Amino acid sequence: MPTINLITEIPGPNSLALAARREAATPRGASKASALGVERAQGATVTDVDGNTLIDLAGGIGTLAVGHCPPNVVEALHMQAEKLIHFCAIVGTYEPYVRVAELLNEVTPGDHAKKTILLNSGAEAVETAVKIARAATGRGAIIVFEGAYHGRTNLTLAMTSKYSLFKKSFGPFAPEVYRLPFPNLYRRPSGMTEDDYVDAAIKQLEYAFTAQVDPSAVAAIVIEPVQGEGGFIAAPPKFLTRIRELCTEHGIVMVADEIQCGFGRTGRLFAVEHYGIVPDLIIMAKSLAAGMPLSAVTGRADLMDAPHPGGLGGTYSGNPLACVAAIEAIQMIRQPEFLKRAEEVGGRIRGHLLDLQRQAPLIGDVRGVGAMILMELVKNPLSKEPAPTEVQQIIAASLKRGVIAIRAGIFTNCIRFLPPLTISDEQIDEAMTVLADSVRSVEDARATATVAVV
Questions:
Q1: What pTM, to 2 d.p., does this model score?
Q2: The CATH classification of domain 71-333, taken from the options 3.40.50.10240, 3.90.1300.10, 3.40.640.10, 3.40.50.300
Q3: Domain locations in the chain?
Q4: pLDDT tens-digit series, residues 73-86
């Protein structure tokens, strides 16, 4: 039987009423992708306040690898809430906090001695990684990349790319952040091979150590092994390997931001495992705690111990409820069968998208790693001119048909798929059928508009 069950239009009257209340009570800057009002969710399904059941391909923007409300996580939260809701790790110690740190020290790449600090959000974890790198090296400069998204605080906005959506009107930003090109193979210059393009990007990286900042001034290079908001662009292996080499050569801290691409999303527990590379620090959040607010930085013990006592942490960092959720999520995701399923989910979605690409000129590229899959829409497959309006139209049309999807990309012309990894094959097929219908409806509207203009 189908999963999608629509009894009203989407969004329905109750959703619209709830969205109106939100707009009246909250600032426009805290925008929403749709007027959908959610009442409950389970696995890969969402039930809205009008009683409609939809399939979720957004997964809380990659936060729900273990699905909505997994029973073991719900039970752990219930049991913990009866014992200890909050204490503050600055004041004292409780078992779940310690256990999460032990688990992350165990499952992150590398066999060196490690330590872990727990925080609340991805941006806070990024800032903490920078603080650790600066304290350890005595240097101030940070290197980041075009297309990167690292957060919405002042420092992480300085590190983030995409100006108009995230940074406009919020400056000035933190200094000593240097941004370099990130090799996007789909948008490489016409006539240039992939190898030549990656080699050119490496030369730009090396040149920056003369033209922009001396390596002796650089505390850290922070990179997403697979860019999230930037458009699911995987770092070419040669490029990431060269970053590791330069960091080792110059005593720079290599920081892997795995906030979106970590915890099973790419078919490995961490995306850097695809490369056989061990970063000095690794940043985690999103699916770490099954949707509860928790983030972490794990890294070499000598680096982690560089900040002075009291220099790290916060009032809510490592909250007991978030920690017990993380313990359950980590134990689920680390299982080989779970990681295998992530690859299967990604492969099935990719297959549908490649079939659709052959029929739809709008789809310029299908890419990603594991179950971190995206399609990039272009107005013309030769010029690759971005098609952000069509992205919004397809997302809206899919929502009306019962599928939740979200945008991405430096040009906001991509649709990304980050479903709960507990989604079934049948739900994938059903959702992809809806997506295909939505793409065709937008393609047909474009064709009709072109004929009318002619």
A1: 0.95
A2: 3.40.640.10
A3: 13-56+338-453, 71-333
A4: 999 999 999 999 99
